[in-house]
Amino acid sequence: MQCRPDCGACCTAPSITSPIPGMPNGKPANTPCVQLDEQQRCKIFASPLRPKVCAGLQPSRDMCGSNRADAMVYLLDLERQTAP
Question: pLDDT (tens digit, 9 = 90+) per residue, 2-47?
């Protein structure tokens, strides 16, 4: 599955504890990553600076649903389920 334009849910919903360029302490859940561009695409997608957790998160029908709102609900629920 390809990422849909203007979504960025996977770069907004989950918390990330590893450093991200521009966010050295990672990012909290439900916060857009500073590496999202105007089209909600990752500016460091092909970079080795991209956190491994981001590279490991692949789009799927279950996760992405039929729109950004579906993806946010799914990912925020996953975030709640896996929170320490």
Answer: 889 899 999 999 999 999 999 999 999 999 999 999 999 999 999 9
- For the chain, the structural domain boundaries read 9-82
Q: What is the pTM of this model?
A: 0.90
Q: Which of 48, 36, 27, 46 is nearest to 9 (CA)?
A: 36
Alpha-carbon gap, residue 44 to 30, rounded angstroms: 19
Residues 84 and 82: their CA atoms lie apart, in Å, by 6
Residue with tokens 């991200």: 20
Distance from C-alpha of 46 to C-alpha of 43, rounded to nearest angstrom:
8
Give alpha helix (H) positions in the chain.
Answer: 52-56, 61-64, 68-82
Residue with tokens 């649903």: 65
How far is 4 from 18, CA to CA, in rounded Å?
Answer: 25
